[in-house]
Design brief:
6-stranded mixed sheet; alpha/beta; about 35% helix; 8 strands
């Protein structure tokens, strides 16, 4: 797998998202999720998923160029806080951290990085480096404080439903319950650093 292969997968997947679905289009949302996974190189095998009778979800794919993998999150819609929802709608689909600290949406990038796991740092270290150091250089006004970073830190760990390894084909069980959710929104982000 080369960088070009990874970029090609991301380009193919990014043509499918972001996407928003109405309450009456559950089947359409599930079909789009399957197409998104296949564009990212996953192979869906096994019996069909059963539609789940549960609240709507959002699906977010976070691809790391450095790790050559993508983490897929299926998050209940009501578990997405307003600041994180705004970030999902504002952050560009491809970004670098900390190189893109000059962007006006840097605070929103940090909110997403926080829920995805703080880039492997503690909340204090993440705040010191990403907010106090890189963020302060550009005089941003909408940066999360330490309390918000701490509250958001690794908040989506329990919603991670799949990890796609881009060195090989990842097989996804077609009967996995998360493939049967009704999705309201789908997003894809690629972190280049």
């Amino acid at each position: 797998m080369t960088d070009d292969d990874l970029f090609s997968r991301h380009d193919a997947a990014s043509a499918l998202v972001p996407a928003v679905f109405g309450d009456d289009d559950a089947a359409g949302s599930r079909a789009r999720v399957a197409a998104l996974l296949e564009a990212l190189g996953a192979e869906i095998k096994g019996g069909p998923s059963r539609p789940q009778d549960d609240p709507p979800h959002i699906l977010v794919v976070h691809t790391s160029d450095y790790n050559y993998d993508s983490t897929v999150y299926a998050v209940p819609d009501d578990a997405v806080s307003p600041p994180v929802r705004a970030a999902l709608r504002t952050v560009p689909e491809c970004f670098a951290a900390p190189d893109d600290a000059y962007l006006a949406c840097w605070g929103d990038i940090l909110r997403l990085l926080a829920v995805w796991g703080l880039d492997g740092l503690t909340a204090d270290a993440f705040h010191n480096v990403m907010v106090e150091d890189f963020g302060a250089r550009h005089r941003h006004r909408d940066l999360p404080d330490l309390a918000e970073i701490t509250a958001l830190g690794d908040a989506w760990r329990g919603y991670a439903v799949a990890s796609l390894n881009h060195h090989r084909t990842t097989v996804v069980d077609a009967s996995a319950p998360w493939l049967g959710h009704r999705y309201r929104e789908l997003y894809l982000f690629r972190q280049s650093m």
